[in-house]
């Protein structure tokens, strides 16, 4: 939904696009309203949905009406925006605000040596599970030590007579559904691109991941295959899924909407590694907003960027939708105000588990698939569904996992040849 805040003052107009959830959207609007008053300007805010944000931003720039600040819903989308020339570096903003003294290190990433994004809040992908059902069926309880334990739990929790399934397998053709197989691949020590910027998706690790996804599908209803992103969560609360997975933590709000009796029975855990010799890798989002490549008001836009990534700005966004995000800057978790909201009072232990997963295992894999090595091609390969396509071929087309791994590795090599050869 787009619209001008304030208005009619004849000052500069800043155009902002992001994909905030409703509660944070309302807080952004309040922040923008105050910024208008302070800076004698207008802020025109577009809240775009997840899938269309990149194309909306690209079309606006091509049409001569570019956005001044952009946050395109996911790391993959944001990286795509950099590659398409929608952003410009903001090294001065990052350095002026203290770089790693202000931001948590895992959120602050560079592309080709430049900072393009100023993070404020982020999300972490986790397994979500019904502790009450696990107890009822005496299944191995997350966090799982291995894929074998994950498989055993999914099998134990599948009771078709009761319309209960251990672990849904989502096969939609969007980048989000590629996160589970990618997380499993990373938890096996594999990757799409290695530290020499070579495509290694046709590895033994990829084949094992695809085999595991095929096996996991035995404990998934077919209806899950075509589920869109919003449809991934409700069946958990309605008793059809024993566990699922997601990114933004909306468990408190889902419980209120779908099954209020589940307070205290829905928990989070890392997507498991292959076995105890490997560590889970939890995919972080939260690259944050960046400066439009063709903004006519760069300094004013940078001031707004500083506002929404300041301590006060981040605190406002965190308390607008408590427990849903993890802070991308230091100090927020030590603030009493964060823990005094009603949601946090009910879900403090649950939220601390979420933060611990982000702290211990979190990485913005779209640009830092291999720790310490920046590689934006991974984000594009996920965003353009190469990963989930390989899983689709194995499960829906009964393709041999080795053949699928080799085929999609070749597709990645072909599609990103120019970038990989730079």
TrEMBL record:
InterPro entries: Bact_solute-bd_prot1, SBP
Record SUPFAM superfamilies: Periplasmic binding protein-like II
Record field: transmembrane: none
Signal as UniProt keyword: yes
Keywords, alphabetical: Cell membrane, Lipoprotein, Membrane, Palmitate, Signal
Superkingdom: Archaea
Name of this chain's protein: Extracellular solute-binding protein
Organism whose genome encodes this protein: Natrialba chahannaoensis JCM 10990
């Amino acid at each position: 939904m787009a619209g001008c805040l304030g208005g009619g003052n004849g000052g500069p107009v800043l155009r902002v696009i992001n994909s905030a959830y409703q509660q944070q959207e309302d807080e952004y609007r309040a922040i923008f309203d105050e910024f208008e008053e302070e800076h004698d300007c207008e802020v025109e805010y577009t809240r775009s949905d997840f899938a269309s944000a990149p194309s909306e931003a690209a079309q606006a720039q091509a049409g001569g009406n570019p956005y001044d600040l952009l946050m395109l819903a996911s790391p993959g989308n944001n990286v795509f925006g950099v590659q398409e020339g929608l952003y410009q570096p903001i090294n001065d903003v990052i350095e002026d605000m203290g770089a790693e003294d202000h931001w948590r290190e895992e959120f602050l990433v560079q592309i080709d040596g430049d900072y393009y994004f100023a993070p404020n809040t982020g999300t972490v992908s986790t397994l979500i599970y019904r502790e009450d059902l696990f107890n009822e069926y005496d299944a191995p309880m997350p966090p799982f030590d291995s894929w074998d334990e994950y498989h055993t739990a999914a099998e134990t929790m599948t009771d078709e007579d009761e319309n209960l399934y251990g672990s849904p397998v989502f096969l939609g053709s969007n980048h989000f559904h590629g996160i589970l197989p990618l997380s499993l691949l990373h938890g096996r020590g594999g990757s799409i691109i290695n530290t020499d910027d070579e495509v290694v998706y046709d590895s033994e690790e990829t084949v094992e991941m695809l085999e595991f996804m095929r096996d996991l599908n035995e404990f998934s209803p077919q209806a899950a295959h075509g589920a869109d992103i919003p449809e991934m969560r409700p069946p958990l609360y309605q008793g059809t899924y024993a566990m699922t997975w997601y990114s933004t933590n909306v468990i408190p709000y889902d419980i209120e909407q779908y099954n209020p009796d589940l307070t205290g029975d829905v928990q989070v855990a890392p997507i498991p590694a292959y076995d105890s010799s490997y560590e889970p890798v939890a995919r972080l989002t939260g690259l944050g907003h960046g400066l439009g490549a063709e903004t006519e008001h760069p300094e004013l836009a940078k001031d707004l960027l500083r506002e929404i990534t300041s301590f006060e700005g981040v605190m406002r966004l965190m308390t607008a939708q408590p427990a849903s995000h993890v802070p991308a800057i230091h100090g927020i978790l030590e603030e009493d105000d964060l823990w005094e909201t009603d949601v946090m009072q009910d879900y403090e232990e649950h939220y601390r588990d979420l933060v611990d997963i982000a702290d211990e295992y979190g990485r913005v894999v779209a640009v830092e698939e291999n720790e310490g090595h920046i590689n934006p091609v991974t984000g594009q390969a996920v965003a353009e569904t190469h990963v989930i396509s390989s899983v689709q071929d194995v499960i829906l087309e009964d393709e041999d996992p080795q053949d699928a791994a080799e085929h999609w590795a070749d597709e990645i090599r072909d599609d990103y040849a120019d970038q990989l050869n730079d």
